[in-house]
Amino acid sequence: MSTASDMECSLLSVKAITKIFEASRSWLGGRRSSVRAVDGLSFELKAGETLGLVGETGSGKSTLGRLILRLIEPTSGRIIFDGGDFTAKTTAEVRRMRSDIQMVFQDPYGSLDPRMSVGDLIAEPMIVHGQPRAGIPRRVAEIMNLVGLDPRVAHRFPHQFSGGQRQRIGIARAMALAPKLLVLDEPVSALDVSIQAQILNLLREIQRRTGVAYLFVAHDLAVVRHVSDRVAVMYLGRIVEISSRDQLYGQPGHPYTISLLSAVPAANPKLERVRQRIPVHGEISSGTAIPSGCRFHPRCFRARLVAAAIPAEAQPFGEHAVPKRCVEQDPVLADVEAGHQVACHFDARYDGLTKVSLSTPK
Amino acid sequence: MPPGEKPDPGQVEAKHRIPALAVRGLTTVFPGPDGTFPIVDDVSLDVARGETLAVVGESGSGKTMTFHSVLGIVPHPGRVASGQALLDGVDLLKLAPHELRKKRGSEISIVFQDPLTALNPVFTIGDQIVEVLRAHTRISKAAARKRAIEVLARVQIPDPHRRVDDFPHQFSGGMRQRALIAMAIALEPKVLIADEPTTALDVTVQAQVLELLRDLKQETGMGLILITHDLGVVARYADRVAVLYSGRVMELGSADHVFDQPRHPYTSALFKSIPHLDTPAGSDLTPIEGQPPNPAAPPLGCAFEPRCFVGHGDQLCASKPPPLEAISAGARLTRCWRWRELDDMSRAAS
């Protein structure tokens, strides 16, 4: 768990945040259902750090990003940013604070007004936040240099740029107010692989020069490994594992992380021939009907292995059996080693896996 | 064989492979301001029965258009200008539209990238499979429905007797993609083309779908063409790989050899530009600088020359397009004037 010194240097501290979307009653008079998109989730992010956030569709990772920007209101929980309670602020205060937290979207084209020139697009946040007009052109040129765009193209419009350059414009807009935190929502997944590398290197360079922290939301586990200092894995609105990058990719602890990593093919045919894929069973449950106990138990390979190894623990589940504890008790994130937390009742001793790790450190 | 080159075990088999689909010198053009320009430029590749050929490339590389040309579904005003597409020896490009329609969906099928737009939202999944079956074979409605349930079960749709009457929106993304695969394999085609079949899916679902395709290929002996941009997918599932750039095949060979020892600078640059899961984390990536060429105004010489770390500025590379050259006794093809220098360069770098 976080120590007092960790708390002091946290830039962002998310405490037991929950977001429940209430669905309106359908016109056919069906039962009113609500979706727990983010469910009592907590984590810390230090200044200048990159936290990778991975999870599949329905894991709540995008909702979490929007909660942190306070684009949507949490149902409960608190977000402490830079020492102040972001969740308690009034709308006007939030708007002021937002200059410190900015967002980069997946689709750079959809997030840029096609009728505004690049220079105007980058200047807009500065004008909105009341920066002195006189200094703006110089700042725009500085930011364009920072993101690798020639300031002489400031008069051009978004459609005159390629996908990679548009993402540079999106990053320039987000960096215009010198934020302390950027929430990057799938920033390279719409780009071709040769262009992805340009943007990933650029993000690293910007961080080196400005000290901005990143919350990097993505589904590509190789990209997340490349950019992150720490990584959090989300499943159905919860963080199920969080640790340093090398611990997570080298010794994944949660069965979901293990399955997820084993599903990603590495670009190496020889390695692929010896790797074992550990399947997740069935389909992801929805946020409207979260399974009892551990929310991952219906899909978990470890639960089935434990039930087979310790019959006293087992209870029937479909054609299989799972441990009673997995069905009845919701596991909490607990330390397995320093800085590595996993939410699972059981450890890896029942997994019987030989080739889980992807990393082959030299 | 040049010094330093490993013998390629694929070369013996290469001579005896009987392709299920063989594309030869395929060129597809679109009208431009100054006459026509090629989107697919002299593409040759093939897939044997029971084999997976991955076709890799970035957007605009012509990887999708190559197979739309083969299937006769190039959008207007594009047209196939020359070449052959031999399916078990029959040139699909010479067939009359009604003859080609008969082959499409029965002997050669395609699974599109986006399963939601490829399915009709107002018909049930079962109706759509039955429609495909009855368009190609004389089969009663009842028998077709029975077959639809069979293929849904084969692609691991749970409870297929009930789900056959579901509408597409009642299926998850992964199930929709599997339903499309069911439709494509219902008539046991000789060749199945899967165009980015898992790009829209989560990684765990992606693995399920690709494993399903691999199993189906092994069971039925069809040739599988996997169009993708994901080099990890190629490494895990492909026997052979064709690398496309700017409408041209740049390199073709067995997946092992292409990954191990790229014979084209573009392939090599592509590997260096992506973050790998099996190398130490955090090292800097080497991006490919610049942009792919505009197809309406391609470079005079090699399409990759302006971005190439070997041949950029070279007079030959910049003035004359290299031919697709057979190397390793025909087991591999490369379209590069200077591929021999790649080994020396990677040795110098390491």
Q: What features would you describe in this structure?
A:
- The complex is a heterodimer of chains A (362) and B (350).
- Chain A contains 13 helices and 14 strands.
- With 362 residues, chain A is an alpha/beta fold.
- The longest helix of chain A has 18 residues, at 193-210.
- Chain A is globular, with a radius of gyration of 22 Å.
- Chain B has helices spanning 10-16, 63-70, 97-103, 115-118, 125-136, 141-154, 160-163, 173-185, 203-220, 231-237, 255-260, 265-273, 315-319, 341-349, and strands at residues 19-32, 35-48, 52-56, 79-87, 90-91, 108-111, 191-195, 223-228, 240-245, 248-254, 325-327, 332-334.
- In chain B, strands 6-7-8-3-9-10-12-11 form an eight-stranded mixed β-sheet, sandwiched between helices. Chain B has a four-stranded antiparallel β-sheet with strand order 2-1-4-5.
- With 350 residues, chain B is of the alpha/beta class.
- Chain B is globular.
- In chain B, helix 5 crosses helix 6, helix 6 packs across helix 8 (173-185) and helix 8 (173-185) runs parallel beside helix 9.
- In chain B, a hairpin with a 4-residue loop joins strand 11 and strand 12.
- Chain B has 14 helices and twelve strands.
